[in-house]
Write a structure and sequence with these properties.
Largest sheet: 4 strands, antiparallel
Number of strands: 4
Radius of gyration: 19 Å
Strand content: 15-25%
């Protein structure tokens, strides 16, 4: 399942507006021009947009290690990277067959520690 998340707080901070009414979310620009309507689907506001693969992440012919791809894609899990490569969701990246696994990521470990309640 593919999702597009929209941050209402970011829209608001940028001067945009969102109106939730009649099981739709309407997005307006700073001049109050309607930009789009997001209907409710299974009690979620689902953005219906054509699927496009991620591109432009890397254009090198040289294979990357799992750790390098993990960092370039914003620290997503290696399992997600494997699935995305297998489904051709991301292009322009070649995984080094000798480095398909990775150890722990210091940044991810730090983020997990800082978000746990004390």
């Amino acid at each position: 399942m593919s999702l597009t998340l929209i941050s209402i707080s970011k829209l608001d901070a940028a001067g945009y507006a969102a109106l939730f009414h009649d099981l739709c979310c309407k997005i307006f620009d700073t001049k109050k021009k309607l930009l789009g309507v997001i209907p409710v689907s299974k009690w979620l506001y689902a953005v219906n947009a054509p699927w496009t693969p991620y591109t432009g992440i890397a254009s090198a012919d040289e294979p990357l290690t799992m750790a390098e791809i993990h960092v370039r894609l914003g620290h997503i899990t290696p399992e997600s990277i494997q699935q995305m490569l297998k489904a051709s969701t991301i292009t322009g990246i070649k995984l080094d067959p000798g480095h398909t696994m990775m150890g722990s990521c210091d940044s991810c470990e730090y983020a997990k520690v800082t978000r746990k309640p004390v």
